[in-house]
Amino acid sequence: MDTEEGVEVVWNEVRFSERKFFKAKEETISEVFDRLIQLEHPNIVKLHKYWIHKDTDVPKVVFITEYMSSGSLRQYFEKTKRHDIKISLQVIDMICNRII
Protein backbone atom coordinates (compact mmCIF):
# COMPACT_ATOMS: atom_id res chain seq x y z
CA MET A 1 0.00 0.00 0.00
CA ASP A 2 1.34 3.40 -0.98
CA THR A 3 0.97 5.46 2.19
CA GLU A 4 1.31 8.76 0.32
CA GLU A 5 -1.45 8.18 -2.24
CA GLY A 6 -3.46 5.46 -0.46
CA VAL A 7 -3.50 3.01 -3.37
CA GLU A 8 -2.23 -0.55 -3.68
CA VAL A 9 1.02 -0.74 -5.64
CA VAL A 10 3.61 -3.31 -6.69
CA TRP A 11 7.37 -3.00 -6.12
CA ASN A 12 9.34 -4.35 -9.11
CA GLU A 13 13.09 -4.80 -9.61
CA VAL A 14 15.12 -5.52 -12.72
CA ARG A 15 18.70 -6.57 -12.00
CA PHE A 16 21.47 -6.45 -14.58
CA SER A 17 24.06 -9.18 -14.41
CA GLU A 18 26.69 -7.15 -16.24
CA ARG A 19 27.59 -3.63 -15.16
CA LYS A 20 29.09 -2.97 -18.61
CA PHE A 21 25.77 -3.74 -20.33
CA PHE A 22 23.90 -1.54 -17.86
CA LYS A 23 26.24 1.44 -18.40
CA ALA A 24 25.82 1.15 -22.17
CA LYS A 25 22.00 1.19 -21.88
CA GLU A 26 21.48 3.46 -18.85
CA GLU A 27 20.38 6.53 -20.81
CA THR A 28 17.97 4.52 -22.95
CA ILE A 29 16.52 2.83 -19.87
CA SER A 30 15.88 6.21 -18.24
CA GLU A 31 14.24 7.56 -21.41
CA VAL A 32 11.91 4.56 -21.66
CA PHE A 33 10.85 4.78 -18.01
CA ASP A 34 10.32 8.55 -18.31
CA ARG A 35 7.96 7.93 -21.24
CA LEU A 36 6.15 5.12 -19.44
CA ILE A 37 5.45 7.38 -16.46
CA GLN A 38 3.68 9.80 -18.81
CA LEU A 39 1.60 7.04 -20.44
CA GLU A 40 -2.07 7.08 -19.47
CA HIS A 41 -4.19 4.25 -20.90
CA PRO A 42 -6.99 2.25 -19.25
CA ASN A 43 -5.61 -1.09 -20.50
CA ILE A 44 -1.96 -0.58 -19.56
CA VAL A 45 -0.62 -0.89 -16.01
CA LYS A 46 0.27 2.57 -14.65
CA LEU A 47 3.93 3.21 -13.80
CA HIS A 48 4.11 5.57 -10.81
CA LYS A 49 7.83 6.00 -10.06
CA TYR A 50 11.21 4.51 -10.82
CA TRP A 51 14.80 4.92 -9.71
CA ILE A 52 18.13 3.41 -10.62
CA HIS A 53 20.57 1.82 -8.18
CA LYS A 54 23.94 1.82 -9.92
CA ASP A 55 26.20 1.96 -6.87
CA THR A 56 25.38 -1.58 -5.72
CA ASP A 57 27.17 -4.81 -6.66
CA VAL A 58 24.49 -5.50 -9.25
CA PRO A 59 22.92 -2.47 -10.96
CA LYS A 60 19.14 -2.47 -10.85
CA VAL A 61 16.08 -0.46 -11.77
CA VAL A 62 13.32 -0.31 -9.16
CA PHE A 63 9.87 0.75 -10.30
CA ILE A 64 6.45 1.08 -8.71
CA THR A 65 3.34 0.14 -10.68
CA GLU A 66 -0.34 -0.02 -9.92
CA TYR A 67 -1.59 -3.30 -8.44
CA MET A 68 -3.64 -5.53 -10.75
CA SER A 69 -5.66 -7.95 -8.62
CA SER A 70 -6.53 -10.24 -11.52
CA GLY A 71 -2.89 -10.93 -12.33
CA SER A 72 -1.02 -10.72 -15.60
CA LEU A 73 -2.18 -11.88 -19.01
CA ARG A 74 0.29 -14.75 -18.76
CA GLN A 75 -1.21 -15.83 -15.42
CA TYR A 76 -4.69 -15.73 -16.96
CA PHE A 77 -3.65 -18.01 -19.82
CA GLU A 78 -1.77 -20.37 -17.49
CA LYS A 79 -4.82 -20.64 -15.23
CA THR A 80 -7.18 -21.40 -18.12
CA LYS A 81 -4.76 -23.99 -19.51
CA ARG A 82 -4.26 -25.62 -16.09
CA HIS A 83 -8.03 -26.00 -15.63
CA ASP A 84 -8.54 -27.04 -19.26
CA ILE A 85 -10.79 -24.05 -19.94
CA LYS A 86 -11.35 -23.15 -23.58
CA ILE A 87 -11.14 -19.43 -24.37
CA SER A 88 -13.69 -18.24 -26.90
CA LEU A 89 -12.68 -16.27 -29.98
CA GLN A 90 -14.76 -13.39 -28.64
CA VAL A 91 -12.62 -13.21 -25.49
CA ILE A 92 -9.38 -13.44 -27.49
CA ASP A 93 -10.63 -10.67 -29.78
CA MET A 94 -11.50 -8.51 -26.76
CA ILE A 95 -8.05 -9.05 -25.21
CA CYS A 96 -6.27 -8.22 -28.47
CA ASN A 97 -8.31 -5.05 -28.96
CA ARG A 98 -7.52 -3.88 -25.43
CA ILE A 99 -3.80 -4.41 -26.00
CA ILE A 100 -3.91 -2.37 -29.20
TrEMBL record:
<dbReference type="Pfam" id="PF07714">
    <property type="entry name" value="PK_Tyr_Ser-Thr"/>
</dbReference>
<dbReference type="InterPro" id="IPR011009">
    <property type="entry name" value="Kinase-like_dom_sf"/>
</dbReference>
<protein>
    <recommendedName>
        <fullName>Serine-threonine/tyrosine-protein kinase catalytic domain-containing protein</fullName>
    </recommendedName>
</protein>
<dbReference type="InterPro" id="IPR050588">
    <property type="entry name" value="WNK_Ser-Thr_kinase"/>
</dbReference>
<dbReference type="InterPro" id="IPR001245">
    <property type="entry name" value="Ser-Thr/Tyr_kinase_cat_dom"/>
</dbReference>
<feature type="domain" description="Serine-threonine/tyrosine-protein kinase catalytic">
    <location>
        <begin position="25"/>
        <end position="95"/>
    </location>
</feature>
<dbReference type="GO" id="GO:0004672">
    <property type="term" value="F:protein kinase activity"/>
</dbReference>
